[in-house]
């Protein structure tokens, strides 16, 4: 048990599935003794259990049909700017009152773009707090794919700026996120798979036999299920030997419910949606429903035969993708909405009833508890990061008190040609106003790269091996210039690499050798000066033993988690490493140690690496004691190039 404080923000616009899923997640946390504030921005949903949660109800909004851009404050009354201002103020007040250690936004920024104003205000407000919470986005197993590539980019930009991770309430071996989100790979390092979230407490036990042997038809909590309801009225007449039960959502008007009852055949019961819906499914012969997240999990819990008719109006693809994936695995019969008629529905049902019952047990449904585990880890990780920033600030403060200037330099590796990633790197350099040493691979460098850099200031070019090719034997650490190749071949390649870089880049080329993977045969290192080099740069504190005719100026700090599959190293660990490097500098006499080298690799940066570097540079450059020097300034290398 603990006293963690968590705030969950969710707005359901059409059905109640989003709210139900977040309520189940919150209940799992509350069961551990956490204080959970659930902020709901949708209309009241009496069928959703909120026991144990502190509910904050914003002025509610809803949509009509699939027009998610037009939000209503009440039936027929479009929400205006003043209404959204009230929502935003209430949301920020709820955050201040809750003081959460973790903030979870449901769906945003993948969806709910019509509410971006209030979500962005909340995120900025949370990040403005000195003890900012862990910030997580919660998504279901299937998203509605972005309509334009720039929307996916905007989502990634928002995630990188504000979020620590994405809670994926699904399972990649059932429906991978890549089935619905084109940029799923770019989320891999921040995706936290929870498994499916199912509210098991809804397994209401009743003493009657309602639903036994019946065909259970349901269309969710809103009027979006009416086309399916109308088709089922006629399909029931085509399958008269079965008793049918049509469940109508709570937001469907009473007069519509009465009309459905009047139209129903003798073998069909029409009634409001019931809290014992899972029990009906377990006793029924088959289910006919849409393919919403919560409905599918109820089907899995009941091990039910199911015909899925996904909601697909207004270009919605989420349910269609989910239904298709489940049908492909033999778990359900998929009837596309555009093919829905009483006849096709009856035929699909008869085909389904002739099949053996499916086995849904492969779909785990303990995602709420797993989510709580992950959130606890993120809260702990955030605390370590806060301690890391404090450690760094203390080290910078000691430098100020000692009137010491801390010298840094920045090297970025693996450039070959102009790319969007290179443009982002150069934009960062201009914004930060610090010099950059760009390590370029000679054999793969293009004239286009030289042309692109010709107009840039503050960028020096270093020689990054020859072809960045691994020649180490299997089982050994990667190296292009390790002790695995003939020495004369390696000497000629390092010599030719310098010539090619100087020919392409002219005066901005420095006689600095950067071996790929930062590994070099010591014998070759001793021959670099004879090949025209003046500086060797790898990744470690430089050796006390000087190399003939050569200066070592190395890098010491790299934000990329190379051993963990890429992405950003744990923030707290990175900050501690940098603080220790500064403390080492302060413990030594001025000028004893080489400048602290920051190493980046622009081609593999993600939004989180970029965001962290931006925050770090702001902290360093704003400290008044950090100074970034160019490698040319540090060594005078541009004036000492050798011929040959």
From TrEMBL:
Glycosyl transferase family 28 C-terminal domain sequence ranges: 277-355
Keyword annotations: Transferase
Alphabetized PANTHER family for the sequence: SLL1722 PROTEIN (PTHR21015:SF28), UDP-N-ACETYLGLUCOSAMINE--N-ACETYLMURAMYL-(PENTAPEPTIDE) PYROPHOSPHORYL-UNDECAPRENOL N-ACETYLGLUCOSAMINE TRANSFERASE 1 (PTHR21015)
InterPro entries xrefs: CE4_u4-like, Glyco_hydro/deAcase_b/a-brl, Glyco_trans_28_C
GO molecular function: hexosyltransferase activity
Annotated signal sequence range: none
GO biological process: carbohydrate metabolic process
Annotated protein name in UniProt: Glycosyl transferase family 28
Pfam families: Glyco_tran_28_C (PF04101)
Keyword Transferase assigned: yes
